Amino acid sequence: MAEAAIPAPARRPVLAGRVKAALVLFGLFAALPPVAAAAGDPFLVLIATRILAYAIAAMALDLILGFGAMVSFGHAAYLGFGAYAVAILASFGITDIFVQIACAAGVSALFALVTGAISLRTRGVYFIMITLAFGQMAFFFFISLSAYGGDDGVGLRSRSTLFGTDLLENDVTLFYVTLAVLAALFLACHRIVGSRFGRVLTGIRENPVRMEAIGFTPFRYQLTAFVISGMMTSVAGVMLANQAEFVSPAFMSWHRSGELIVMVVLGGIGTLAGAIGGAVAALVLEEALGMMTEHWPFWFGLFLVLMVLFSPRGITGFVEKLGRRRP
Amino acid sequence: MTNLFVLQLLNGLQLGVLLFLIAAGLTLVFGIMDVINLAHGVLYMVGAYLIATFAAATGSFWWGLLLMLPAAVAVGLALEWVVMRRLYARSHLDQVLATFGLVMMANEVVKIVWGVSPLSVPLPGILSGSVPLMGPLQYPVYRIAIIVAGLAVALGLFLMVNYTRIGMLLRAGATNRDMVSALGVDIGRLFAVVFTLGAVLACLAGALVAPILSVDTGMGESVLILTFVVVVIGGIGSIKGAFLGAILVAVVDTLGGVFGPILLRQVLDPAAAGQAGRTLAPMLVYILMAVILFARPAGLFGRRG
Q1: Please, what's the largest Cα pairwise distance for chain B?
Q2: Does the residue B247 lie in any domain?
Q3: Does the pLDDT at position A157 exceed 90?
Q4: Residue A72 lies in a domain
Q5: Is B221 within 8 Å of A254 when comparing Cβ atoms?
Q6: Which residues of A204-238 are buried (b: 16+ CB within 10 A; e: fewer)?
Q7: What is the mean pLDDT of residues A273-294?
Q8: Is the pLDDT of residue B76 over 70?
Q9: Is B17 part of any domain?
Q10: How many A×B Cβ pairs under 8 Å?
Q11: Nearest-angstrom CA–CA distance, B300 and A146
């Protein structure tokens, strides 16, 4: 019954449009390294790799924020798990990126399962504050981990290895690998959202009581989505550590969690491809403001406040309105 | 050992009283207006900077404190009028974004106005020095003064909430906002009063702690998260919960940091105990929060889940 109630074919064009938008974005990204090389600005590739890593994280957050209405304010913790998985495993001589990703995802799944199970017993303001507190808990754990630099963080001796080779030492290769990871995870997210699981999740977002009445247990679906999102975010952390060749608790500060939410919202929540665009927009805006003034956080903050205050339905409504104006 | 315990217990109490001052406003704002305000920690920081400025200008801590209070009222009213008022009807996500923006702005404004180097506020002469407690144990007078002042404010709040008309409206608003509004209470004005009250309490906490901490831009943030934990543990909208939660969190945080490693040394070798203790101590309050929430999802005194 539940399957039949949702007119799936009517949604196809929208989804197809979003996939097209994502493909365009990926295509533009793929063209970047040659352009950067031609422009004689190799740093551009490193900056773009950072943007791609954050795009992975923002997209993973969008999976629960956009499709599950779970405003997690502690998602930077998973970035940290990914980053520290690289640093800690490397210190034991394990540099294979697949092993590192598996470890990062495993730890993140465990953390998300425990903290998610507790956080999901509540909703609204409680949920936001509790995820924030758990994020901070992870943050303080790594701050006190003096074996890995504590507050100062620790540099990586080398990047992760790919199939036993040091291919990732090349910035351009790292960029393309990150792009491939993003594309693969986008596809996975897209499949999840379109699946029965995704539609149940969206249903719970719209009306949890009704979903419960027709026989679904919201908690189970929400927790599963929360765990998946955490695992994906940790992959972003692995890529980010390789990009920066440095790992520190700063990756997991609550400001970072806030920035991830900003990215999701800027791109339009519940759109996946939008989250990627939002990550690009937010980070480019940061870089641009940072070049103009050292007090860029002021202007970024002002931008956020004005966006919320002067659009009738908040930033989300503002973005939707922009979207509608486009032909 | 006993001396150390008493000393740390007092330190915990002092931190708890400060946390309560901040959490009281936050829990009312959450409970009555259903607004999440990430910028509440900013107000604590602003209070400290205001007293640093006024105390330096007048040369007296007391004048500084006296001038800080009307300034705090002005800051609270302005913030409510310009930003918060427009957020009440919005989604939590919008509230998070706007107040997150405010945090970024405020930190930069403070850097622009007061510079990046930390400020210090001199201890008021009459409250400097220490008093003997028991045996060889001395405790700074100023910290005792903070505890006394905080408890006095807590008592005042308790009386106000339970025995005055505005307190009655606060309790009613925390229970059922729409009903209060339907009964003809100007809910907009009530919100403004509550927000400003919360702002002044947070500023007061910042001002009180300024002489014993260095005043810098990051000071609001660590406290903000601890305050969230307090509010969540105590139950949103409950002053009583905020008080007990604040004392509980502060005592666990303070005692855990000192006695955790000592206790671990009984079972582990000293080096491992030291590392494990340092790692576990800052996590203790969050574990406490998790345990309490697991048992009572709405907090100790919360009604809504």
Answers
A1: 66
A2: no
A3: no
A4: yes
A5: yes
A6: bbeebeebeeeebebeebbbbbbbbbbbbbbbbbb
A7: 87
A8: yes
A9: yes
A10: 141
A11: 35
Residue A107 pLDDT > 90, yes or no?
yes
At A177, the amino acid letter reads V
Nearest CB partner across the interface for B83, out of A145, A300, A305: A305
Q: Give the length of chain A.
A: 327
Q: How many CB atoms lie within 10 A of CB B251?
A: 18
Predicted confidence (pLDDT) per residue in A16-64, tens digit: 667 777 888 888 888 888 888 788 777 888 889 999 999 999 999 999 9
Nearest to B289 among A133, A141, A302 (CB): A133
Amino acid (one-letter) located at A5: A
B208 vs A268 pLDDT, higher one: B208
Q: Which of B87, B111, B236 sits opposite A125 (nearest CB)?
A: B236
* Residue A313 belongs to some domain of the structure: no
* Chain B partners within 8 Å of A260 (Cβ): none
Mean pLDDT throughout B50-59? Answer: 88
Neighbours of A89 (CB within 10 A): 20
Q: Determine contact: B78 vs chain A, CB below 8 A.
A: no
Range of the domain at B183: 2-218
Tell me how many domains chain A contains. Answer: 1
Which residues in chain B are contacts of A297 at CB distance < 8 A?
104-105, 107-108
Q: Give the Cα separation of A234 and B97 in Å (integer).
A: 23
Q: Which helix (H) or strand (E) holds B130?
A: strand B130-132
CB distance B120 to B114 below 8 Å: no
pLDDT tens for each residue of A72-87: 998 999 999 999 999 9
Burial profile B68-93: b = 16 or more Cβ within 10 angstroms, e = fewer: bbebbeebbbebbeebbbbbbebbbb
How far apart are the C-alpha atoms of A179 and A25, rounded to whole Å?
Answer: 10
Residue B128 above 80 pLDDT? no
pLDDT band of B101, cuts 50, 70, 90: very high
**Which residues contact residue A245 at a Cβ distance below 8 angstroms, ignoring those fewer than 6 apart?**
A155, A156, A159
User: Mean pLDDT across chain B, nearest whole number?
Assistant: 85
Q: Does A285 touch chain B (CB under 8 A)?
A: no
Domain of residue A238 covers 20-257
Backbone angles phi, psi at B140, to 5 degrees: -60, 135
**Which chain A residue has the Cα nearest residue B280?**
A141
- Would the CB atoms of A308 and B278 count as touching at under 8 Å? no
The CA distance from B205 to B19, in Å, is 8
Q: Which residue type, as a one-letter code, is found at position A120?
A: L
Q: What is the total count of domains within chain B?
A: 1
Question: Are A316 and B93 a contacting pair at CB < 8 A?
Answer: yes
Q: Which residues pair with A155 in a beta bridge?
A: A246
What is the complex's ipTM, to 2 decimals? 0.84
Token output for B155: 């008592």
Q: Is residue B195 part of a domain?
A: yes
Q: Residue B138 pairs with which residues in a beta bridge?
A: B132
Q: Is residue A61 part of a domain?
A: yes
Is B259 domain-assigned?
no
- Residue owning tokens 């924020």: A65
Give the DSSP H or E segment for A246.
strand A246-247
Is the sign of the CA dihedral A300, A305, B100, A265 positive or negative? negative
Residues A62 and A44: their CA atoms lie apart, in Å, by 26
| Contact with chain B for residue A293, Cβ under 8 A | no
In a domain, A105, yes or no: yes
**Token pair listed for A296:** 């860029």
